[in-house]
Amino acid sequence: MRRVYLFLALTFFAFGLNAQNVQVTFEDEVVNVDDTVNIEILPDVTFKSYFYIENITESPISAMAKYTKILSEEGDEFLMCFGECTIGNVAGPVTLNPGEIFEGFDIEFTPTNTNNRLLKVELYEELTNDILHQYYVKYYSETGLEQAKSNSFYVKAYPNPANNHVKISYSIPNKYSAAKIVVRNMVGQVIEQYDAKVSYNASLNINTSDFVNGVYFYSVIADGVTLSTKKLVVKH
């Protein structure tokens, strides 16, 4: 009988570890429990990583955020914002109602070199300390600074969904001579068009206060070639 009780206890314990109370999203991709988010870094360039947190239970959650340095350099400082911003490793609490998506969680890091770093990020219940979700953030570099600046391409929008404004951060490889960012609606009509810099680590601020609520698509086009198209949601 004791073996049965032990088996049941272990089963419930394992179920508790695997039960997911919140869903974490990074750059439109779901981050599962114990996943690793990889972020390529360059020295003296600030990297801000945004994570969306959704309460997928039927009850309110009072959530805290914590990171632990698994691999780091002396003097490394991370700025974590979870409701409020802190240079400490714990932030919160933030109340998440059922179905609510919280967009105010980000971690900012400015490396002084390209050595690898690794953080363990934990979201936990304020009163019980129960783990809601945990994952890892790895900072790494595979290329030299000038090569990365020359060849790098990325684009992302924040916040998304947007209310009155959205910031589009991007890098466009210097092999292109001219670029633009085009915003279209669901039927493909051009709503706005902006000149973009052929540059590393550039950004564009767009006023969306006059945009009608709905789904849009923003594209980065360089020398007539569409490099990327992503979804933008406007919700006032």
From TrEMBL:
Q: Which InterPro entries match?
A: Secre_tail
Reading the lineage from the top rank, the first entry is Bacteria
Signal peptide position in this chain? Answer: 1-19
Q: What sections of the sequence does the record tag as coiled-coil?
A: none
What are the protein's UniProt keywords?
Signal
Domain Secretion system C-terminal sorting as annotated: residue spans = 158-234
From the Swiss-Prot or TrEMBL record, give the protein name. Answer: T9SS type A sorting domain-containing protein
Native source organism of the sequence: Candidatus Onthomorpha intestinigallinarum
High-level lineage? Bacteria, Pseudomonadati, Bacteroidota, Bacteroidia, Bacteroidales
